[in-house]
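Tutorial, part two.
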Amino acid sequence: MEKYCAWCGIHLGTIEAVGKPGMVSHGICIECAEKLFQENPLQIQYFLNRFEIPILLVDDDCRVISANDRALELTCQSLECATGRLAGDVMECKHAKAGGCGKTVHCKACAIRNSVTHTHQTGETLYRIPAFQNLIQGDREIKVRFLISTEKIKDVVILKIEEVSGVQQGD
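Running the prediction step on this input gives:
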């Protein structure tokens, strides 16, 4: 898979990933990231909205710094409501509602939290990691399967929600 900076378009290299040959992925180069993070939050929002998939920009504890419009639509949140909250709370994770995102025994196995933590600590980019969550929507529980990718830029992690499937009502 070929990877390009979504901001300036330079080639960032070839990566090994699950998917069809010839696929293209987008990230951000260090030069664009430095420029972006020195500027105002509207620039970050503009950058994230260039992606066609849901994107959350999170810190080392999975706290949302920003999100693109597709992620806000997926989570039924406004940017103001999502910013500063933990990703599990924004996504309405069943376990986050029960004890707080990252605070229950179930959180130790959370692929989203573990991927963000791993990428933040090691700088290693992860691609299309399966993640399963039980989400609360209104008065019902649904089981959702995500494929996520993570990439560290400076001191934040870009959490890409590559695919959402298997949505069904829980027990």
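The CA atoms of residues 9 and 108 lie 37 Å apart. In part three we will examine how such features are distributed along the chain.
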